[in-house]
Amino acid sequence: MIRVLLVDDQELMRMGFRMVLGAQEDIDVVGEAADGLDAVQMADKLRPDVVLMDVRMPVLDGVEATKRIAAADTAKVLVMTTFDMDEYALSALRNGASGFLLKDTPPSDLVSALRAVASGDAVVSPSVTKRLLGRFLGDGGGELRDASMLDVLTEREREVLVLIAKGLSNTEIARKLFLSEATVKTHVGRILAKLELRDRVQAVVLAYETGLVRPGDA
């Protein structure tokens, strides 16, 4: 069973999520919270597999709640937002969320996303992350992070990271670099470990923030 904690300050929204998720045989909604502080406390107490987190809430917003939950490694976080160009969503990704979805996401996609996050995958497309970063970093502008942190990567790993950031799947990366898919998976795992990243989403964000890839790149 996938244990899920619902976090949203709107009771009707939580009710809707509970109805959708409660109909799934492999998903168990173990609790609900109306603000980020309650979410952090309940995540620590209940230890759910996934927290479905609203980002705009009173008391403590979803970004800070995501940061605390990710730091404590109590659960994976999937954030929900109303707008696909929401700076809160980008901040949540930077602070440990495994992805984000729009609140009008079809129920079947929501269920699939929760299952993916629970299994360790990320569920935000690099193209969406790219648009968010393009807005907040600017094309060729904005403040970048120190790229020296990437020095721990080999030349091949940097090459793979660039392709991850451009949205290529492992299969596509393998084809482009004339490698086996297993070898690509090994490279991806080493990249995440060396840079201390949780998943591909954070890898994409870091690649743009350090200037390894720019929002306007093809």
Order of strands in the sheet with the most strands?
Answer: 2-1-3-4-5
Rg calculated over all Cα atoms? 17 Å
CATH superfamily membership of the largest domain: Response regulator
Q: What is the name of the CATH architecture of the largest domain?
A: 3-Layer(aba) Sandwich
CATH C-level class of the largest domain is: Alpha Beta
Question: How many angstroms separate the termini?
Answer: 40 Å
Q: How many beta-strand elements?
A: 5
Helix content: 40-55%
What is the strand content? 5-15%
Low-pLDDT residue intervals, each spanning 5 or more residues: none
CATH third-tier fold name of the largest domain? Rossmann fold
Mean pLDDT across residues = 86
How many structural domains? 2
Give the SSE order as H and E letters: EHEHEHEHEHHHHHH
Describe the structure.
With 218 residues, the protein is of the alpha/beta class. It has two domains: 2-124, Response regulator (Rossmann fold, 3-Layer(aba) Sandwich); 147-210, Winged helix-like DNA-binding domain superfamily/Winged helix DNA-binding domain (Arc Repressor Mutant, subunit A). It is built from ten helices and five strands; from the N terminus they run βαβαβαβαβαααααα. The chain has helices at residues 11-22, 36-46, 62-72, 87-94, 107-118, 126-137, 155-165, 170-177, 181-195, 200-209; strands spanning 2-7, 27-33, 50-54, 76-81, 100-102. A five-stranded parallel beta sheet has the order 2-1-3-4-5, sandwiched between helices. Helix 2 (36-46) packs parallel to helix 3 (62-72), helix 3 runs parallel beside helix 4 (87-94) and helix 7 (155-165) crosses helix 9 (181-195). The N and C termini lie far apart (40 Å). The model has no long low-confidence stretch (mean pLDDT 86). Residues 146-211 form the HTH luxR-type domain. The modification 4-aspartylphosphate is found at residue 54. Pfam families: GerE, Response_reg.
